[in-house]
Amino acid sequence: MGSVRIAEGLAFDERGLIPAIVQQEGTGEVLMLAWMNEESLRLTFETGTAWFWSRSRRELWNKGSTSGNVQQVKQVLVDCDRDCLLVVVDSPGPACHTGNRSCFYRELEEV
């Protein structure tokens, strides 16, 4: 295993974004998928809490700052192609804006 300097060699897309899968430490539960840019990644490392880029609002957001469910970042991993991040967190409450623990609470069914 090796470490990579923040943002060095990461494959950001044409908008300067990279997808970030957020996972609960200890359980492996996938909580959400969000987008990060270089600034949100830097803030994440500086503060120890999860920062993302909102594509709809076009602004940085500190996950949980309004709800009180701030995600404490334990580890940030990058995949083999360097085009996706895995952010391992301790999330004290719901990660989804709907109030669900995970954003992945609906199962698709064949029609």
What does this structure look like?
The protein is mainly β and 111 residues long. It has a domain at 18-90: Phosphoribosyl-AMP cyclohydrolase (Ubiquitin-like (UB roll), Roll). The protein contains one helix and six strands, in the order ββαββββ. Strands 2-1-6-5 form a four-stranded mixed sheet, with helices on one face. The protein has a two-stranded antiparallel ribbon with strand order 3-4. It is globular, with a radius of gyration of 14 Å.
Largest sheet: 4 strands, mixed
Distance between the termini: 43 Å
H/E series, N to C? Answer: EEHEEEE
Output the number of helix runs. Answer: 1
The helicity comes to under 10%
Short characterization:
The chain is mostly beta strands and 111 residues long. The chain has a domain at 18-90: Phosphoribosyl-AMP cyclohydrolase (Ubiquitin-like (UB roll)), CATH 3.10.20.
Detail the topology: elements first, then pairings.
Elements: E1 18-24, E2 30-36, H1 38-47, E3 51-54, E4 59-62, E5 72-78, E6 85-90
Parallel strand pairs: 1-6
Antiparallel strand pairs: 1-2, 3-4, 5-6
Defining key terms:
111 residues, mainly beta, Ubiquitin-like (UB roll), four-stranded mixed beta sheet, two-stranded antiparallel ribbon, 1 helix, 9% helix, globular
